[in-house]
Specification:
The protein has helices at residues 6-10, 78-81, 155-161; strands at residues 35-46, 49-62, 68-76, 86-94, 100-109, 112-123, 126-134, 139-147, 173-180, 183-198, 204-215, 226-231, 238-244, 249-254. By secondary structure, the chain is mainly beta. Strands 8-7-6-5-4-3-2-1-14-13-12-11-10-9 form a 14-stranded antiparallel beta sheet. The termini are far apart.
Length: 260
């Protein structure tokens, strides 16, 4: 079950420096939230095998200082718990423009426990990340920096949902920087246009199709490409994520109401 690496697939999810062209693709009025809860089913697919392996819940709410707090909680289902139980949580605190101030990842996978914290700061056009990694036998610290605005695995997701897709060029790649744990990753986004997709419940919806590629220093891939589909309605709800595995694929399906 660990090979699913499903927390990354669930975010992108369902997600830095939104360099050059992507920075001008912001709508005149950014999407805002009071509260929102999105529920997902994570399904393993291999040939004729379709197995509902885990559930995830993504929430966001406004904080007293005018910013946002978002949380992604995921857990394997009872049958999968017998093979490899997973209880993971991603937490993110953001300013009103969705730039992160703090990111936390809590990992509990079988007997493995870990906690990663990144505190963000900004100065002279640069994003700095003060990273602390807590493990059962040690604590590690690291400092990261990136020109422009860098994000984490949660905040970049909300930036994505605020893009003006009408301004994006089809099949053109855009890059963003993500601070994760003690490393800096480049997330490359390619807009593939709009299409009609079918969810697990059989319903069909118009969606924007985007692919994601994560790379580390030296342009080495840190995971296989991920396909994401966002609703074309005002909420830009992530409807489906698809990630390839060594054997089969994992699909993350949205399971709630969808605006038109």
């Amino acid at each position: 079950m660990k090979t699913l690496n499903w927390m990354k697939y669930a975010m992108l999810s369902m997600v830095g420096t939104v360099m050059l062209s992507i920075s001008v693709a912001q709508p005149a009025a950014a999407r805002t939230y009071t509260t929102e809860t999105l529920n997902y089913e994570i399904v393993y697919h291999w040939g004729l095998i379709w197995k509902h392996a885990a559930n995830a819940k993504l929430t966001i709410k406004r904080t007293s200082n005018g910013g946002y707090y978002s949380e992604l909680v995921g857990k394997t289902r009872s049958w999968a718990d017998k093979i490899y139980p997973v209880r993971d949580t991603l937490k993110c605190w953001m300013n009103s423009n969705f730039t992160p101030t703090k990111y936390m990842k809590l990992t509990h996978e079988k007997s493995y426990y870990a906690k990663d914290v990144v505190n963000f700061s900004y100065a002279n056009g640069t994003t700095y990340g003060n990273c602390i990694r807590y493990r059962t036998d040690r604590t590690e610290k690291a400092s990261l920096a990136s020109r422009g605005t860098a994000y984490d695995m949660v905040s970049v997701f909300y930036m994505l949902r605020n893009l003006d897709f009408a301004s994006l060029q089809k099949n053109k790649s855009y890059s963003t920087v993500v601070f994760s744990g003690k490393r800096k990753e480049t997330l490359t986004i390619k807009y593939k246009g709009s299409e009609t997709i079918e969810l697990r419940n059989g319903s069909k919806h118009s969606a924007y199709h985007i692919t994601f590629t994560f790379t580390q220093e030296g342009n080495k891939k840190s995971s296989d490409d991920i396909d994401a589909y966002l609703s074309t309605g005002p909420s830009r709800i992530p409807l489906m994520l698809v990630g390839q595995l060594p054997v089969g694929e994992v699909k993350c399906y949205y399971g709630g109401a969808i605006d038109k």
